[in-house]
Design goal:
three-stranded antiparallel beta sheet; 8 helices
């Protein structure tokens, strides 16, 4: 698990639309990796402090810490909370999985479970993953000791990728591996 400080925790900048429409900037950065009702309370508090009377509408005008995940101006606060919590807990592997698996099309309540089912780990290379997989499944121990030195792990890794059972994403000198369902 990746340790994140408050400065790099996912957050959203929520703006008061009454102020925006009146030519003023009024809004707040809100930590997104908290419960939806806490985010809603922070939005309500921001609107109450608006210099414009009857401030009720808001929009997300910026966000940070979500990697390549797009939030949009009027996101579901429940989804923002779910995404932020998963990013805070799993970091880069989750954002890469979300991007590669087209996470926008998944129901927010399924995201955590689906990620954990598919996440296989980060490795130096595809070949390192292939070796680990063979070792964990016991297939490697079925080979005579002398034959293990001649096994082509690189070709096996390529076959795992081409076979469609696994996807490999190279990012920041790491190979992230996901099981395709």
């Amino acid at each position: 698990m990746e340790h994140r400080s408050q400065n790099d925790s996912p957050k959203i900048y929520v703006a008061c639309l009454a102020s925006y429409n009146a030519g003023q900037l009024h809004g707040e950065w809100i930590l997104a990796d908290q419960e939806p009702q806490e985010i809603q309370a922070a939005i309500h508090s921001m609107l109450e402090k608006s210099p414009e009377p009857f401030a009720e509408e808001w929009a997300v005008h910026d966000y940070e810490g979500f990697g390549s995940i797009s939030i949009g101006e009027w996101p579901s606060i429940e989804r923002v909370s779910t995404l932020a919590k998963l990013i805070a807990e799993h970091g880069e592997p989750f954002t890469l999985w979300y991007q590669n698996q087209d996470g926008d099309n998944f129901d927010g309540s399924e995201l955590g479970e689906m990620f954990l089912e598919q996440w296989q780990g980060a490795f130096e290379s595809e070949t390192d993953f292939a070796y680990k997989l063979l070792e964990e499944t016991g297939q490697l121990s079925e080979l005579p000791t002398w034959a293990r030195n001649y096994f082509d792990y690189e070709s096996y890794a390529r076959d795992l990728n081409l076979g469609g059972d696994f996807s490999f994403t190279r990012h920041n000198c790491q190979t992230y591996v996901f099981r395709n369902c």
